[in-house]
Design a protein that fits this description.
single chain; 168 residues; alpha/beta; 5-stranded parallel sheet; 9 helices; 55% helix; 14% strand; binds shikimate-3-phosphate
């Protein structure tokens, strides 16, 4: 299998964006973040889109932009935590699961970062969502990395794995 793109999946706040930026830099690939693209294209924050148009509309945007993005090759793409649950990740994507425990995620996120995420406002519900989703993340992943350590500690594991694969 020759992969067109690297796609990072995982729960909110697991570090996909930070990992993606760093990997893209090291691999000399372009970094793309689906949430940022949605916000730029819509001219609204994720919170505003959820409030004004609803979650279902947001999910349709995720599917649209992941489809569009993957028409191109050679990118490292960070997805929102719900994208692999609600959308189909196009074939020929090397899917990497950034696997952090819920408690670790909560500790990592500042209040400001939590406030940006409508589905993290109620911690008990977010924990339920986390447990609902983890199996799907595992099933979809070509590779899973234990992300309970600092990013600098595990990023080289992903880097080495990607170099062993054939990603354009
Ligand atoms: C969501 C995750 C968020 C963002 C939106 C919904 C989710 O992205 O797409 O708030 O359903 O898990 P991050 O995973 O980057 O926080």
């Amino acid at each position: 299998m020759v992969y067109d793109n690297v796609v990072l999946i995982g729960f909110m706040g697991s570090g996909k964006t930070t990992v993606g930026k760093s990997l893209a830099r090291q691999l000399h690939k372009k970094f793309m973040d689906v949430d940022t693209i949605i916000e730029n294209e819509q001219g609204s924050s994720i919170t505003e889109i959820f409030e004004d148009k609803g979650e279902e509309y947001f999910r349709s945007l995720e599917q649209k932009y992941i489809n569009e993005l993957t028409q191109k090759k050679g990118q490292v793409i960070a997805t929102g935590g719900g994208l692999p649950i609600h959308s189909v990740i196009p074939e020929k994507s090397l899917v990497i699961y950034i696997d952090a425990d819920f408690d670790v995620i909560l500790k990592r996120l500042s209040t400001k970062e939590r406030d940006k995420r409508p589905l993290l406002q109620d911690v008990a519900r977010a924990k339920g969502l986390y447990h609902e989703r983890v199996n799907t993340y595992k099933e979809l992943a070509d590779f899973r990395v234990d992300a309970n350590q600092s990013i600098q500690t595990f990023i080289h594991v992903i880097f080495d794995y990607i170099l062993d694969q054939r990603v354009l």
